[in-house]
Amino acid sequence: MAMLQEAGAEEIEHPGGTLLAHLQRVSALLASWGARPALVSAGLCHAFYGTDGFPVALLHLERRVELAEAIGAEAEAIVYLYASCDRKSSYRALTDDSGLLADRFTGRRTHPSLEERRDFAELTAANELDIAAASPQMRALHGADLLSLFTRWRPLLSEQAWAHCQRVPGRPDP
Q1: DSSP of 62-82, one letter per residue?
Q2: Which of 68, 76, 114, 168 is most buried as measured by Cβ atoms within 10 A of its Cβ?
Q3: CB of 1 within 8 A of CB of 9?
Q4: Reduced to 3 states, what is the DSSP secondary structure of residue 139?
Q5: Beta bridge partners of 102
Q6: If we measure between CA atoms, which residue out of 149, 129, 124, 126 comes closest to residue 139?
Q7: What's the rounded Cα separation, in Å, for the pair 84 and 108?
């Protein structure tokens, strides 16, 4: 939390309030799904390096070791995988064992393990579902596409995540 506060996460606007509030909700959502501690920690820190959909970076990649020291190497590796993913070229093949994930920072393509792909899918679902729940506009614009994406990713999602995926994108405005 100290690193997030030092980086100004509570001052950055994000659907549903601030980036810090969003990160806390994503982490809590992952915990409610029964995610292991490393994934819950990654949920809290998933925006540290920016993402393909949210370019604001809280920490430069050269300082990865600092984040690893704060949240653990496993959680930091999940954060890096999430942040580095070139979504356009990687999402379609995520369920495929031979699918490649494109690293937007290095240009390299890797074959993530099943556990890495599951972590990525769960973190993506928690992130996108929080945004959809917080923003009626985002839900209206992207809800159907999210449900389609998560339906394709169903083999990678836990039962709890999948149940949530089916509810939020199509939920009417509050």
Answers
A1: GGHHHHHHHH-HHHHHHHHHH
A2: 76
A3: no
A4: helix
A5: 109
A6: 129
A7: 10
